[in-house]
């Protein structure tokens, strides 16, 4: 059933990512023998919580004051079974080294969904290197070459927007529908081989641009831990001061961190 | 979906279209199983934009052409990759050797090349592409995977090849074992084939040969992870967040087993036994 489902989606050209959970195999060997049909996994994700927390959650779920003896025994047995599974899986995939990430999320101190989301994003999202530059400096080639050298993904916001609009993709149509052309300063209109003045992110809905960049990144990224992002946080290039205030640096920066990944560095050229 | 107005010559009214679809399904009922069994039958979903549908069609019918470059001074690894790819059924097209052969055999294209060499010392990319075109689209279904060697060397040649022959699926770029790729021999500002392909995510670095790694680099990989946790450990929330924030599709094996169990019985007579793991798999 599962194998057929995965194989059917292979030919669709859509990039699918699966998360196997609640496995029903009696041993880890049986599970890994099945999983090996799909190559090796990207990661093993273990949710771990201290016994005290597990008990508290049990009481909350069962509306009880304290855990009765038989349920306590059950919790202990489940903990032991989980630890055995963890060891079994980790040992099997240890042979592949860094290619299978071993991720452990301790949910004991996860006070909210937000904190758990942040923890997960830190583990899965790339770190962003934001490149902001004077228009007279052409950084496109240098960024592409640096991306080769340090195994990073390079994304230019206005080039992605331009590509989607010109190719009339669904994203392109959505972008055009929300486009509100703003005046850009004369400095940006000089040598502009990628039509930045026309396709700059400043003309489009910020959230939509971020979602598009996130999807583009998802398609391009394989094992890269960093992404060079160019063409954002440049509202100062807007002609009108009201437009500049409407689209502030910090709003863009927060949106990048919330949707794409933590900004590890900003390069100003 | 293509929107055709009533004035368009290809316009078909909805009732006629329904009849045509019904006729297709009636006739295909017997034909499809035969085609699936006897031919390289591929099913393509057209419940998407025409561009995506055509992309899917091209993926099935277009040959795979890969360029292996010597990369980060890794001649040995480069040769090893070419040898291993040949073992995987790729045909190595060494353009310099092919050119010599064509001229030696005095084929039509060979004679054209000889004539051109009298006037100019370089053979234009268009002539090389013309020669490659005949090989790449040779008409033999089994020969559809190629390695291009010694060509293209410049961006113009890439453009000529992709315009008049086939798209390059990827450039394989052998690198050393270090964490960085040595590009010091080239200026950082030098826009070349590697930079172009990097921008298009078609430059694939490899620091060792492995068939599995090669398939992964070409995107022929099932991306998956395994989530595990005891009850009340927060695993349910974690899995939910992976779906919402990271775009994963959950394959809950226990739920699949339950679904299968439900489908194996009826409301009056539910299935009592245990569904074998193999069925879920």
General description of the model:
The complex is a heterodimer of chains A (269) and B (281). Helices cover 49% and strands 14% of the residues of chain A. With 269 residues, chain A is α/β, with parallel strands linked by helices. In chain A, the strands form two sheets. Chain A has a four-stranded parallel β-sheet with strand order 5-6-4-7, with helices on both faces. In chain A, strands 2-3 form a two-stranded parallel ribbon. The mean pLDDT of chain A is 82. With 281 residues, chain B is α/β, with parallel strands linked by helices. Chain B has twelve helices and seven strands. Chain B has helices at residues 14-38, 50-61, 75-87, 95-105, 108-119, 125-136, 155-164, 193-199, 211-217, 235-246, 253-264, 277-280, and strands at 64-68, 91-94, 145-149, 168-174, 203-206, 223-229, 249-252. The longest helix of chain B is centred in the first third of the chain and has 25 residues, at 14-38. Chain B is extended, with a radius of gyration of 26 Å. Chains A and B meet through helix 1, strand 1, helix 2, strand 2 and helix 3 of A and helix 2, helix 8, helix 9, strand 6 and helix 10 of B. Strand 2 (43-48) of chain A pairs parallel with strand 6 of chain B, so a sheet runs across the interface.
